[in-house]
Amino acid sequence: MAVVLTDIQIAFAAGALFADAGAPVIEAARKESEAALAKLYSSYMLRSLIYAGVFLGPVATISLLAYPAWETQYLSGIFDNTISYNDTTNFPWNAYPYGIFLMAVFFGGWFGNWLGFKWVLNGARKKLRILYLVIVAITFAVVWLRYPAPVQVCDYAHFRADPYALPCRYYVAHKPFFYNFIVLLLLAGLPLIVGFFQIRMKVKKLQSSK
User: Fold this and answer.
1) What is the DSSP-derived secondary structure letter of residue 22?
2) CA-CA distance, 184 to 209, in Å (whole number)?
3) What DSSP character marks residue 89?
């Protein structure tokens, strides 16, 4: 389970990773025909969009609804105030951050795979790998520089007042959060790992057939 500060970059990196992992297959498809390359591109793009829209997006939504302040790493209380049916001042505009965020995640997955394909075909695979790995590294470095935000579970107002005082709790001590964290981490992580190995298996199959 990631956070708002990381989800868009993870979606981008996943799309780029799929293109990077399947680079030999992409090159083989280009040599075969334009139709084969277009079919492969559609297949990889679909994989990237499914990951962003079916797995990462819903995981982020669940986490945002359950722990909005932690998901935003206490940078803003905007997601703490998204449900107010009787609030005629902000309704329905206060619900828009969810939609905007999920569209950005979806776009990140699309752009990562589009750029990945483009760079692989242009012989810039190493450059692509450096780009998405650096983006991921910087992203998580920024998150951990906000310590104790990544490990303290609270609402926005109480965290700002004192992140170590109740009701703020260490994430492992907060059992509902911790169990939810593990489940959502698996939901977001396993499809990415499975997708990567499926692509690499096709690469190995291609290489063994030569």
Assistant:
1) T
2) 38
3) T
Look at the block and give the residue holding tokens 């470095």: 141
According to DSSP, residue 154 is labeled: -
Residues 106/7, Cβ–Cβ less than 8 Å: no
**Axis-axis angle for helices 4-21, 96-121 (nearest 10):** 20
pTM, to two decimals:
0.90
Amino acid at 186: L
Q: Is 116 a residue whose pLDDT tops 90?
A: yes
State how far the alpha carbon of 121 is from the alpha carbons of 111, 130, 137, in Å. Answer: 15, 16, 25
Cite the DSSP H helix spans in the chain: 4-21, 23-32, 34-50, 57-66, 68-71, 96-121, 125-145, 156-161, 175-208
Taking alpha carbons only, the member of 173, 138, 136, 128 closest to residue 154 is 173
Exposed/middle/buried for residue 15 (C-beta within 10 Å: 0-12, 13-18, 19+): buried
- Whether the Cβ atoms of residue 82 and residue 95 lie closer than 8 Å to each other: yes
Three-class DSSP category at 152: strand
pLDDT tens track for 86-102: 555 666 677 777 888 89
Assigned token pair, 58: 């819903």
Residue whose token pair is 């609270």: 154
Instruction: Give yes or no for a contact between 153 and 177, defined as CB atoms under 8 angstroms apart.
Output: yes
